[in-house]
Amino acid sequence: MENILLAHPYLIAVICAAVSTIILKLSQTSKLNHIPSFGHSTWLGSYFAAFKYVSSAPQILQDGYHKYKTTPFKVATFNRWIVVIGRHHLEDIKKSPDNELSLVEASNDHAMVDYLIGPAITSNPYHVSVTRTHLTRNVSHYYPDVADEIFTAFNQNLDLKDNEWKNVPAAATMREIICRASNRVFVGLPLCRHSDWIDLNSRFAVDVMKDANFLNMFPKALVPFVANFVTNTANGIERGMKYLDPIIKDRLRFMDEYGKEWSNKPNDLIQWLIDEREEFTTRQLTSRVLTMNFASIHSTANTFTQALYHLAANPHYVQALREEVEAVVEKYGWTKDAITEMRKIDSFLTETQRFEGVLTASVQRKAMKDITLSDGTFIPKGTHVLVPTRAIHRDCSCYDDADVFDPFRFSNLRGVNGENSRLQMTSLTQDYLSFGIGRHACPGRFLAASELKTMLAYIVASYDVKLEDDSSPKNIHWELNVVADPVARVMFRKRTGN
User: Fold this and answer.
1) Where are the domains of the chain?
2) 111-359+397-494 in CATH: which number?
3) What is the secondary structure of 304-320 as a DSSP string?
4) Residue 11 vs residues 14, 17, 19, 220, 402: alpha-carbon distances, Å
5) What is the pLDDT of residues 275-323, one digit of tens each?
6) Would the pTM count as exceeding 0.85?
7) 16: how many CB neighbours lie within 10 A of its CB?
């Protein structure tokens, strides 16, 4: 069966799309008739619309956003209709409790977490509160370790000699460096540098999205059956257990002997999770650690790879960034305070997220009961709603020349408006939604921003970069996912001259 699924993906997709369309029409469309469809709403039309959505979701949502700017509209996907709402509905999103509009349930349906990693992740997402409590509030404390790992990882991965240019696969290399930096906090030394642990987590981040995209081709009723033949993530968990089992058993033994505190107690994600006393088995805790890695690596690596492509394609950006980095590091050293002062570095990455992004829509919710939005729009239970982030980020009423990549857009605005925290990378505003909105905004964004800014600052301070050839790397779009060009190569050389 598995061979059949893998050998005939297009045939399977056709069958599933046809079945899904019929199910959608019978079970959902009548409840959403009051919301206009962008594209076709007939059985056959929505069949083709769902296929088109897979590779063209950004353009579909962009066109729908401009056509129905103040009115919700719906689009067809393989296994559901999605209702697209606008900026004026963001207050509805922020005010609605989880039992009305749920991010967790929407994310679960999109990433198929229950089937790929395990239902405990969504039924008890205590790792989110752990992130807020231990990680977000202590980014400055962990920064020296994170910076050290980034510098070491670059030097070891690039291994440059004298004045040579060396080309590397950009996406894979940046993913490995980010994996090491995050795992310096998650599992500590020496495991964060173990080549197989790095490979495992890098692959796991890719496999979850790949497997989820595959499962999303099937009607919900068939997903539990098909998931039995999608084993990449299950194998990853088994592989991870081999590394974490001895660590976890040692930690539990120390806790049994000494209670919650003992001499030289580790201060990492593994220990934070154990201290919560929510889960105790190696499988449970391994799944939780890999989930955190997936959340960290997938989005952060994509963002940085996109930024690196812009930098390599435009060497004239390097000098402006380099001048800022050198001046700030001379004053503060390589510290968290220094990274905070690098406004152009922050702006470059903020603009990358605005212009590119890793999701076409970063604000997604699932209606857990029948609700009515503030403008009177009725949303029936079970409906997925989203805000078209990319369309808002490319809206000229929100940003001047919104279709132009302007690396210093945000630092220039901060210069005009004075010190304005609402223009920083980690900001949450109605015009900048890369990290979500409200109480469910990404809790790991402060660690991610520190990693991203340190990596960019270190590159411009230490290397010259350029694209391998004149080709322009292109993002890959699959439904709402935006993946930085996975095969493009970037050339590095030790910095020469000023």
Assistant:
1) 111-359+397-494
2) 1.10.630.10
3) HHHHHHHHHH-THHHHH
4) 5, 10, 12, 18, 40
5) 999 998 999 999 999 999 998 888 999 999 999 999 999 989 999 999 9
6) yes
7) 20
